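User: For my dataset I need records formatted as: sequence, then structure tokens, nothing else. Please produce one.
Assistant:
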Amino acid sequence: MNLANIVQGGWDAVGAGDFDRVVADYSEEMIFVMPGQTDVLEGRGPFREALNGLGQILPPGFEITGLRNIEGDAEVVSIVDWKSSKITGSQLAVLFRFEGNKIYEERWFIDTEQWNNAF
């Protein structure tokens, strides 16, 4: 399986609400860097717990309207088209870094002013 397929499977699992399937592709020592780059979750357990509150950390009406995955050497970048109740359309990028076939880092890149205004 190529790395882009692993990432796509994770997006599909998020859409289905199957968070256990999402975290299965992450290493135990993974880190998740949220928008703004200052808030970091460390470890698969805390990441899994955060997924339970996904509805509270995404803007109201958040919806992914398009998704493209670009695979590089041991990494995948997802370009995500999204909208919300207050934002008619925007994009963000998510970097997934791999060791073997496990994600050890997920990092979101987003216009944080626009993101904050979406709430």
